[in-house]
Amino acid sequence: GDGEDEADALFHALADRTRRDILRRVLAGEQSVSALAAKYEMSFAAVQKHVAVLEKAGLLTKRRSGREQLASGDVEAVRSVASMLLELEQVWRGRIARIDELIATDSAVEG
């Protein structure tokens, strides 16, 4: 469904090291796309594409100021990623707890 597509877009956006780095920068404060591009050894167009992927996932927002495009990180979107990961962790912890129970009952039977 829709929520899953959103999750796919988020995790795809975060799967790339450069995009994670860009996100860190724009969460710290608004940055112009050209200032961001200057930080990486790749073309301006490549950085622009990374920014577009982050924007599509809702992790950053862009606004125009004169000739500059300014990007800022969306804290709410990052929080939603964190809560998704937390949810997965709880499922995982639940499984671990059940495995522990199984092991405990197993050894009780043998003893």
Low-confidence stretches: none
CATH topology: Arc Repressor Mutant, subunit A
Largest sheet: 3 strands, antiparallel
* Number of discrete domains: 1
On the 0-100 scale, what is the average pLDDT? 92
The CATH C-level class name = Mainly Alpha
Q: Give the CATH architecture.
A: Orthogonal Bundle
Number of strands: 3
Radius of gyration: 20 Å
Span between termini: 49 Å
CATH superfamily: Winged helix-like DNA-binding domain superfamily/Winged helix DNA-binding domain
Q: Report the sheet-strand fraction.
A: 5-15%
- Report the helical percentage: over 70%
For the largest sheet, list the strands in their spatial order.
Answer: 1-3-2
What does this protein look like?
By secondary structure, the chain is of the alpha+beta class. The chain has one domain: Arc Repressor Mutant, subunit A. It is built from five helices and three strands; from the N terminus they run ααβααββα. A three-stranded antiparallel beta sheet has the order 1-3-2. The longest helix is centred in the C-terminal third of the chain and has 36 residues, at 75-110. It is elongated, with a radius of gyration of 20 Å. The chain starts with a helix and ends with a helix.
